[in-house]
Specification:
The complex is a heterodimer of chains A (108) and B (89).
Chain A (H helix, E strand, L loop, with lengths): L1 E3 L5 H7 L4 E6 L4 H16 L5 E6 L4 H6 L7 E6 L2 E7 L4 H13 L2
Parallel strand pairs in A: 1-3, 2-3
Antiparallel strand pairs in A: 2-4, 4-5
Chain B lengths: L3 H15 L1 E3 L3 H18 L13 H4 L9 H8 L7 E3 L2
Antiparallel strand pairs in B: 1-2
The chains are: A alpha/beta (108), B mainly alpha (89).
């Protein structure tokens, strides 16, 4: 399950998670973000119990996007124990997303 | 300020001149065009809707569509980051 959250809730969501978090930074007007959305939903089922899936709208959550120095979207950021452990930029197919997420998680 | 149709025509013309084509996926194409119209209304420039506007005019100039990076991206992956311009098939 993917939780669409507000920027103001971001820190609370991070600190309350007992497992690593993956955040999808996206926006309504971004074409590749629309393509990424169903894949991110699928991934949330594949990684259920291993990763918590959050989604942020960069228009609404500009402060969080700025804090993470996001320059383009879609951008997936993996966070473990409050620290960024990896980021995936731009649209990519599901198999490649899984490969890259597994690589990052293997080092956490 | 350009309308969606005008911006679509401008983008098509640019793509043709540059040897590219627009994304054949109409839904994605429409989203990006809408985003460009919105950014022009909001910021005064047609900033790429897939990039974050920083407020630094010098930096942001690079992300006005067609952005400073699109040719390199199309050459490397076949389409620009925002998936508006594609390599011709």
């Amino acid at each position: 399950m993917v939780n669409l959250i507000k920027g103001s809730d971001f820190d609370k969501e991070l600190s309350s998670s007992k497992i690593p978090v993956i955040v999808d930074f996206s926006a309504d007007w971004c074409g590749p973000c629309q393509l990424m959305a169903p894949l991110f939903e699928d991934l949330s089922t594949i990684y259920a119990g291993k990763l918590r899936f959050l989604k942020l709208d960069t228009d609404e959550a500009g402060e969080v996007a700025e804090r993470f120095e996001i320059s383009s979207i879609p951008c997936l950021i993996l966070i473990s124990r409050g620290k960024e452990v990896g980021r995936l930029l731009g649209f990519m197919p599901k198999a490649l997303l899984i490969q890259k997420i597994d690589e990052i998680l293997s080092k956490v | 300020m350009a309308t969606e149709q005008e911006l679509l025509d401008i983008s098509k013309n640019y793509a043709e001149k540059a040897g590219f084509m627009l994304n054949p996926n109409k839904q994605i194409q429409d989203s990006v065009i809408k985003g460009l119209v919105r950014n022009e209304a909001k910021h005064g420039f047609r900033y790429c809707p897939c990039r974050i506007v920083t407020g630094n005019k010098e930096k942001d100039r690079k992300i006005i569509c067609p952005c400073a990076f699109h040719k390199e991206e199309i050459s490397a992956q076949g389409y620009c980051h925002c998936m508006l311009f594609f390599k011709k098939e």
